[in-house]
Amino acid sequence: MALDQSFVGRSYPPTAPYEVGREKIREFAEAVGDAHPAYTDGEAAKALGHPDVIAPPTFVFGITFKAAGQAVTDPRLGLDYSRVVHGDQRFAYVRPIRAGDRLTVTSTVESVKSLAGNDVLDIRGEVHDETGEHVVTAWTTLVARAAEED
Amino acid sequence: MTAKVPYADVEVGTELPARSFPVTRAALVRYAGASGDFNPIHWNEKFAKEVGLPDVIAHGMFTMAEAIRVVTDWTGDPGAVVEYGVRFTRPVVVPNDDKGTAIEVSGKVTAKLDDNTVRVVLTATCTGQKVLGMSRAVVRLA
C-alpha cells in the first residue's frame, strides 16, 4: 500500500533530552567489539583533545532512530514495519558525542516514495546539545520490502 | 581532535589496513541490547524467514559500526570522523552456530579535501559479496 505523501516535509517537535551516559557508551563499544580507549578512558579521550569520553561514530543512531519513530510508527503513514529494512544511513558530525551530553532530536520526513513495490522513507534527524549547539545530522532511509505474491 | 596520521603523509590511493570482523548470533543479541534495536529479524529465525529473509541478519548498523573501525583505528582518534555514510546493499546472514560469519573491510583514500580532511571509500564484504555500497567517510587528519 502506498505511503501517505502528505508526510513529506513534516517535522516533529524536538524530543525530550537524552543524556549520554559513560556506561552506555562503554556498553555500546563492547557490543561492537571496539576497545578504543577514547570510549572508556577519560584521560585517553583528553589526550586526543576531547573534554570527556566520546561515543563511537554510529552510537547516535539509537537516539535518532527512536526519534524517527514518531513518523515511522504513525499508522497514518502506512509503513509495514514488519517488512522494514535499513536502506541507507549517513551522518555529518559537527563534533563527536560525549558523555554528559543532553541531546534532543528534531526529525523531518524528507521523502516518501514507492520504488518497484517497495515503500521508501527518508528521515533527517538534527541533533543538538543542551546549549543549542548542533552536534550531528543523521539521514536514515528505511525500505518496507514488497510482500511476495502468492 | 588529534588524529595520528599527518595529512601531508597521505596520498590519493593510500590504502588503510584491512580488517576482518567476526559476527555471531551472540554478538547480535548483545548489539540489540546496547543499541535498543530489538527488531526480531536480528534474532528470531522463524520471524526472519516469515518475512522473506534467508535467516537472521545482522543489524545494518552493526556492520556500519564495524566498517568505520578501519578508519578510526587508522587515524587513532574516532572523533576525527566528519562524515560517514553507507548503503546497505545486501544483508549479512548470520548462521546459528558458534562461528557465525565475518565482515571483511578495506579502505582507500580517494580524495584530499580542504581543512586537512580526506575522503575514504570503504569496501565491506561477507562470504565474498559486497554488503555495503557507497560506503564513504570524511576524516580530519593531523
From TrEMBL, chain A:
Stored Gene3D superfamilies: Hotdog Thioesterase
Any idea where the FAS1-like dehydratase domain is?
6-137
The UniProt similarity line reads:
Belongs to the UPF0336 family.
> PANTHER family from the entry?
HYDROXYACYL-THIOESTER DEHYDRATASE TYPE 2, MITOCHONDRIAL (PTHR43437:SF3), HYDROXYACYL-THIOESTER DEHYDRATASE TYPE 2, MITOCHONDRIAL-RELATED (PTHR43437)
Q: What is this protein called?
A: UPF0336 protein Srubr_80530
TrEMBL record, chain B:
Q: MaoC-like domain spans which residues?
A: 14-120
User: What name appears for this protein in its UniProt entry?
Assistant: MaoC family dehydratase
Q: Which region is the signal sequence? A: none
Q: Which superkingdom?
A: Bacteria
Pfam families from the entry? Answer: MaoC_dehydratas (PF01575)
Which InterPro entries did the record assign? Fatty_acid_synthase (IPR003965), HotDog_dom_sf (IPR029069), MaoC-like_dom (IPR002539)
Q: Which family does it belong to?
A: Belongs to the enoyl-CoA hydratase/isomerase family.
